[in-house]
Amino acid sequence: MTEAVKGPASYFPSIEKKYGRPIAEWKELIRSSPLTKHMELVSWLKAEHGLGHGHANALVAHTLSEDGAK
């Protein structure tokens, strides 16, 4: 039996479908940004790339946790 994906990654399928970019591309954008704080990155994704708050928050949270928080 497969366990359901939980946490920020649970948003990934809908992010890819809605915005047409793979998650790896979003993570690379986040990592290449000069911004380092969680909410700065969320606001930037919303303003510059048109993401909704929940999707931007999930991407930033997951990416920063992978990187051990910039």
TrEMBL record:
It holds the Pfam family DUF4287. InterPro entries: DUF4287. It comes from the Bacteria. This is DUF4287 domain-containing protein. The lineage of its organism: Bacteria, Bacillati, Actinomycetota, Actinomycetes, Streptosporangiales.
